[in-house]
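#lab-general

N.A. 3:47 PM
ok so I finally got the sequence cleaned up, no stray characters, all 119 residues accounted for. can someone with queue access submit it? mine expired

B.Y. 3:52 PM
send it over

N.A. 3:53 PM
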Amino acid sequence: MGVAVKVTWVVVVAMMCILVASPTGVEGMTCGDVTTCMMPCIGYLRGSPGLPPSCCAGVKKLNSAAQTTKDRQTACKCLVSASKSFTGINYGLAAGLPAKCGVSIPYKISPSTDCSKVK
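B.Y. 4:20 PM
back already:
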C-alpha cells in the first residue's frame, strides 16, 4: 500500500475521528494518529470485499481517543483533507463505517463535512 492508500485511510478514519480522538497523553490528536488508525480500512473503502477486524479496531480506537472538541475537529480536518487527495474511496461505505464497527457519531463522514461544527 502506497502513500495514496494511507491517505485514503486517513480520510476515512479522520472522518470517524471527528467524533473521537485518541487519548495519547500527548498534546492532542494529529493527522498521523488518524492515519495510523484508519490504514486498515483503505481496501474496504475502495471496494475490497470484507471489513477487516483491524479496521474496526482502528475506528474504535480513534473514537475512544477523541476526547475533546479540538481533537474531534482535528480528526475531521485530517479526513476531509485526505478525502480530497485520494481517488477510489466509496463515500457511501465511508459514511456507513462507524455503524458497521459499532460506533455512533453525530455527523456524516463526507468530504463536504464542515469540521468547525463538530463538537
